[in-house]
Structure formats: structure tokens, C-alpha cells
Amino acid sequence: MNIGIDKMGFYSPHLYVDMNELAISRDVDPGKFTVGIGQEKMAVAPLTQDPVSLAANAALEILDETDQEKIDLVIVGTESGVDHSKSIATYIHPLLGLNPQARAFEIKQACYGATAGLQMAKGHIALHPDSKVLVIGTDIARYGLRSSGEVTQGAGAVAMLISREPRVLRLEEHHAYHTEDIMDFWRPTYAENAFVDGKFSNEQYISFFNRVWEQYKAASHLKLAEYEAICFHMPYTKMGLKALRTILEETDEANRDRLLANYEVSKTFNKNIGNIYTASLYLSLLSLLENQEGLPAGARIGMYSYGSGAVGEFFSGILQPDYQKQLHIQRHADLFASRKEISVTEYEEIFQQMLPADGSKADLAINEDPADIVLAGIEHHVRQYVNKKQ
């Protein structure tokens, strides 16, 4: 049975800060951020956007009435959930008008969560071929003002509809994965911002990639030359490139040039959004599909997922005929074009704004947010969401 990604949606807040301006304000050479790290703009989430609303907005653009009825499993991968008990998957159910006869839950394993959801969805469809699964990666990356990780913050979500006979990407049979208990990045329950051992995390990212790449080659008997492109989880856009370069000598110059060129295209969205944790790999895939016109149906796309702590996985998929018809290229172009640049001072003010820690009543200015789905406030410890289209 062919199983894979049938539709993809994406959403990011309407505000961003320019990396050149952030570098200047931090007394850093702008080239360190734009060239050394590979980031150009960083999405900034106002209080009216949280991981729930980001997830719902990403899914809203791809679901029709048939999908709403057929979806019987909703999986959300996140590492910035809003509740220790209740999942984001349950929050978004009424916002998207989904059939209540469905399972819904949240997965946590750093940036690997959405990939875990994708693989679980694949197994579910194999057992229930007539159903559909909604998988979403949604996150707001926070390291703290003036921290070493500040430049790799971001906010956004990617939604994927998984089904049999997919129209975008058919997932292939083989996959390789590896887990170790390491402390390269973590956020204790008492901390608002993450902790990271940057050098160690970079080393582990590449080490895990090399390990699962070798495992995948042994299982699939595929060579590097048989891949049109490889998409990577991108905590920052130079990270995936460092990993890719470790295997390029396995093929000839023409194939190396193609893989490098497609990598450059795959980072287009990521360098203008920043790190969105669980959705980062799938934002890279979407960037490749929507910005590289020459990708033929039947092309093989490799995928490397990494979640600190740590889990790594490599898998691949085959582009389907007329996959472009399922994309929302103009809508996403409009989303980027309509974003508003804010000053570093404005970014710092927004970053420090918090919802009441004691759950007391709060009303937010939702008319200032152009998104269809927003967080309107808190009342009696309950988050209040509004779908402006309902």
C-alpha cells in the first residue's frame, strides 16, 4: 500500500526581526548571523499566537470537509506545549471542525516529535486504509534575550495530512533510527527558556546523521547518487549543510552539485523564519517543493530528523505525479510578503510579554493579529481561542 503525505500546510506569525539589525544591536558582525549561522530573518510570535494557534492556522489552509470527516487521528509534535496534561491536538479539534470520533494526542521528544507522529500515522493508515491522519509540528523556540542561542529562535507550524495513495510524497519502506541519553539541549519544567550545549549538540547532530545514514544504506541498498535532494532538520541553516558535506565524497561531482543546489533551495523558508523545532525538517521539505521548479515526479527525497536528548532518524520518500497541484505556493508567498518588520526594541518588548502566571483573566488585542485563528485571552485558567472564520 502506498502511504505518505497527501497535503502540506504552513503558518508563521506576521512579525519578524531582521538578523542584520539584531546583530548590530548585539555588537556582533552581521556576517556571523547571516553567513556563519545562515539566518536572515526571525519570526516573532505576539501573545495572540501560541503553539496551539500556530498549529491550527497551518492545518486550516489544507483541510476540506472530506478531510474533516475522514481524519480519525490527530498527532501534534511539540516541545513548547501549553499544558502539562492536555494536548495541543485536543485544543485544535473544534477550531478545525474535525470529526470527534478520533484519537488525539501530543508527542514530546525535542525536535523529533513530528517525525515520530509521521511514522505512527503511517502505521495507522496501514491498519485503517480509509482513514486520514493529521500530523502537525508546532513550536516557538525561546533561548532568551542576548543568549548564545538567540539568533536561532523562531515560531511556526507545519501541518501534514497523511493518507493512502498520497499526492505529494510516498514514504518508502526503509528507515533507520538511533537513540542515546545525552544532554545537548533541554528545558526543565521550571524554565521558560531552553538550555543548550551548542558545540556538543552540533557534534551529536552530525554523529547521529552519519550513524543513521550508514544504517539506512545497509537496509535500503540505495546510494547517494539515487537521491534528488536531502532535507534536514535545521536548528539553523548552516547545520544541515555541515552534515551533508560529510557524505558528499560518496558520489561524483555532478551529483554533489545537485545535492548542494537543492539544499540551498530547501533552506529558503527556514532562513527567513528561524528554528521551529518539530516543524523545521518539514518546513525545509516544503521550501524545496515550492521553490525548486525542476523537481521531477519520481524523485527520491531523503529526510534527516534530529531531536536533542537525543533521537535521530533517516527515511525517504518519492515525489508523486502532479505533486505541485497540492501545494499552496502563492498563499505562502503572500504570507511572507505581508509580514511586518519590527525593531529590535519592539522584539524585546514582545519577547518579555507573558500571559498571567496565576491564570487570572486576560484579554488580548486579537484585531491586531491578521491570523484566522488567535489566542484571545485567558479566563478561569482556560485559554480562549477564536477562529475568525467560524
Please provide a written account of the structure:
The chain is an alpha+beta fold. It folds into two domains: 3-169 and 327-387, 3-Layer(aba) Sandwich (Peroxisomal Thiolase, Chain A, domain 1), CATH 3.40.47.10; 170-326, Peroxisomal Thiolase, Chain A, domain 1. It contains 13 helices and 17 strands. α7 (198-220) packs across α8 and α9 (253-266) packs across α11. The two termini are 37 Å apart. Residues 175-249, 264-354 form the Hydroxymethylglutaryl-coenzyme A synthase C-terminal domain. It comes from Tigheibacillus halophilus.
Q: Going by CATH, what is the homologous superfamily of the largest domain?
A: Thiolase/Chalcone synthase
Can you list the strand order of the major beta sheet? 5-4-6-7-1-8-13-12-11
% residues in beta strands: 25-35%
The poorly predicted ranges are none
Q: How many helices?
A: 13
CATH class of the largest domain: Alpha Beta
Number of strands: 17
Shape, per Cα inertia axes? globular
Q: Can you tell me the number of structural domains?
A: 2
Quote the CATH topology of the largest domain.
Peroxisomal Thiolase, Chain A, domain 1
Please give the largest β-sheet. Answer: 9 strands, mixed
Brief summary of the model shown:
This protein has 390 residues and is of the alpha+beta class. The protein has 13 helices and 17 strands. It has a 9-stranded mixed β-sheet, with helices on both faces.
Give keywords.
alpha+beta, HMG_CoA_synthase_prok, 3-stranded mixed β-sheet, EC 2.3.3.10, 390 residues, Peroxisomal Thiolase, Chain A, domain 1, single chain, 9-stranded mixed β-sheet, globular, 13 helices, 26% strand, 2 domains, Thiolase-like
